[in-house]
Amino acid sequence: MSRSSRISRRAVLRGAGAALALPWLEAMAPRTVLGSTAGAAADAPRRMAFFYVPNGVHMQDWKPKEEGSNFELPWILEPLNPLKDDLLVLTGLAQRNGMALGDGPGDHARALGSFLTGAHPYKTDGANIKVGVSVDQVAALEIGNQTRLPSLELGIERGAQSGNCDSGYSCAYSSNISWRTESLPMAKEINPRFVFDRLFGAGASGSADDRQKRGLYERSILDFVLEDAQNLRNRIGMNDRRKMDEYLTSVRDIERRIARADAAEEVVESTGAQRPSGVPRDYAEHVRLMFDLIALAFQTDTTRVCTFMFANEGSSRPYPNIGIPEGHHDLSHHGNDPKKHEKLKKINRFHIEEYARLLEKLRSIPEGEGSLLDNSMLVYGSGLSDGNRHNHDDLPILMAGKGGGTIQTGRHIVYDDLPLNNLFLSMLDRMDVPCENLGDSTGRLKGLDG
Question: Could you tell me which of 49, 427, 430 has the C-alpha nearest to residue 445?
Fold first, then answer.
């Protein structure tokens, strides 16, 4: 590859007002190390993401019995077996500010409000909400100027931003995991169509007249950038051409799936409300679309910070797709009923199956001398441990990815009742984000590097 063939890390494909970001290519490596896989790896950015499940988990089938690298994944975590070497199971971490601390009931609101902040939510159902800045927004504030989107907040259920949702706590606490300031939540997007538009410029780039002229909703965004894409293919090597082809295929696949969801738009008979355009009727497909969009956002370096909520905290969503018509929240108050235990386990495992799908996809995307997963840190967990007890200690926490080679994965690490925010401080270090204290942190979490 000649020196003249090098392209910018910020290069995009353009056409008719559309702008399509590019994945990481070998041609983006610094000139001093072109052809060096070590240099390519060093040039790859690090990413962080947080995935939240409500109502706790069935801990008896979550926590491994063995500590260290010689451990077996319990039934709920079995779908992660092919990814075990890319995974950390972290037990013994807590969010003490999710506890009542004199405020009475409201554990679900406090569980989510404290999860990424480590702060105690102020009990109110009015406009005077107050908690703390979440770890994702600490990172976004520091490094968000290096990407087109400082952060990406996604979910499946919309959720209210006001009113009483949990024993006197505002619905804002139960619906938002990301907090820009102590009183300003970052509302999540649930519509894949709108997420796609944000990532690929359909909504954020050009005027309404431009978008109408392009006919973006009737045609693929790829139709408008084909000429630019072909010009780029003529300048890059064979490996990069293959990556480009795979990437563009992924973009088109997502477009088709969103179009199918648009075609299935209907009026929900039970409420009379109209289903938002672009939201699949099937919950699993909805999650998978969002996860594919996260993968593309990271692959194109459109953002390096993301949060995702499988449902709002305290959610009563049923899971008929896996044979469970009862609401999740009701089942979480199991009262040691074996039948409820079994259904909870199935819900927990289903969520893990979808998380595993995303990890597999990230691992399949080459970047530098490793993969996109190698250069990421993806935390999965809940602000409650046992949903029946509403306890906020010994939380179910996983972390996947090697953080650019700074984390030794493939282990079960047991801590002695340490703040979850200590993990977040350690992640911020690896993102080159200076932060001495976050919420109730007491220091960095030791042992992540082996």
Answer: 427
278, 295, 323: which is the final residue of a domain? 278
> What is the DSSP-derived secondary structure letter of residue 434?
-
DSSP string for residues in 112-178: HHHHTT--PPP--SSS-------HHHHHHHHHGGGSSSS-EEEES----SSSEEETTEEHHHHH-S-
Distance CA 153, CA 12 (A): 23
Write down the pTM of the prediction: 0.89
Q: What integer pLDDT is reported at residue 31 of this predicted model?
A: 54
Residue 364 shares a structural domain with residue 240: no
Together in a domain, 34 and 99 = no
Is the Cβ–Cβ distance between 43 and 25 less than 8 Å? Answer: no
Distance CA 114, CA 134 (A): 9
What's the token pair of residue 186?
Answer: 């970052």
Tens digits of per-residue pLDDT, 97-137? Answer: 999 999 999 999 999 999 999 999 999 999 999 999 999 99
d(CA 148, CA 258): 23
- Kindly state the tokens that stand for 367: 């970047």
367 and 416 in a common domain: yes
Domain count, the chain: 2
The pLDDT tens digits for 360-414 are 999 999 998 899 999 999 999 999 999 999 999 999 999 999 999 999 999 999 9
Alpha carbon of 196 to those of 202, 287, 291, 349, 361: distances in Å? 8, 14, 12, 28, 18
17 & 115 share domain: no
Structure tokens at 105: 């009931």
Q: What is the largest CA-CA distance in the chain?
A: 68
The pairing of beta strand 164-166 with beta strand 184-185: unpaired
Question: Contact, 120 vs 440, CB < 8 A?
Answer: no
